[in-house]
Design brief:
It is a single chain. The protein has a seven-stranded mixed β-sheet, sandwiched between helices. The longest helix is centred in the last third of the chain and has 17 residues. By secondary structure, the chain is of the alpha/beta class. It is globular and about 35 Å long. The protein is built from six helices and seven strands; from the N terminus they run H-E-H-E-H-E-H-E-E-E-H-E-H. It has one domain: 2-Layer Sandwich (Endonuclease, Chain A). 39% of the residues lie in helices and 21% in strands.
């Protein structure tokens, strides 16, 4: 039974913006699914990340390709906002030119999410790291269901308003 569930979870399914749907992302499928959605962005991208690494010397990594696609989106004029847990990650993203803030150090931001144009939300356990996308057992969801997207938007905007940018 478990083997069948894993096989079905890995079967690719297209997420359609016209259909209220949810899709499970298991293990190393994350970067590819996220890249496809980032490429489809028309206006804005929001990223919440606990751990986020940049692997300039390893451009073949899926997570670095996602990093590059986020940077390309920013360079194409899309608004890309990143909310991260720590100052070190904040500095790294600011040096890449991202609009970025970090949460108050008294609390930990453990949220891992990407929202595209307020239409798609990827949320789950995947960090933006090589380990999370190659070694760990991870699970996230892509959804186009309106209610959780609105709830996430409210959550993000509240955190964004009180987070640090210097």
């Amino acid at each position: 039974m478990s083997e069948r569930l894993q096989k079905n979870a890995r079967r690719p399914r297209k997420v359609s913006p016209t259909i209220q749907s949810t899709e499970l992302i298991v293990d190393n499928d994350y970067a590819g699914k996220a890249i496809d959605l980032v490429k489809s962005a028309q206006r804005d991208i929001v990223v919440c990340a606990y751990a986020w690494r940049w692997y300039e010397g390893e451009p073949e990594l899926g997570i670095q390709q996602l990093n590059s696609q986020l940077l390309a989106a920013k360079l194409q004029g899309l608004r890309v906002r990143c909310l991260v847990d720590g100052y070190r990650v904040f500095e790294m993203l600011k040096s890449q030119g991202f609009e970025c803030k970090y949460v108050n150090p008294a609390r930990m931001l453990h949220t891992k999410a990407i929202m595209i144009d307020g239409t798609y939300l990827i949320i789950g356990s995947h960090n933006m790291t090589k380990r999370a996308n190659r070694e760990n057992l991870e699970m996230s969801l892509i959804t186009t269901v309106t209610e959780p997207i609105l709830q996430f938007t409210t959550y993000f905007e509240k955190l964004w308003a009180v987070s640090n940018e210097t």
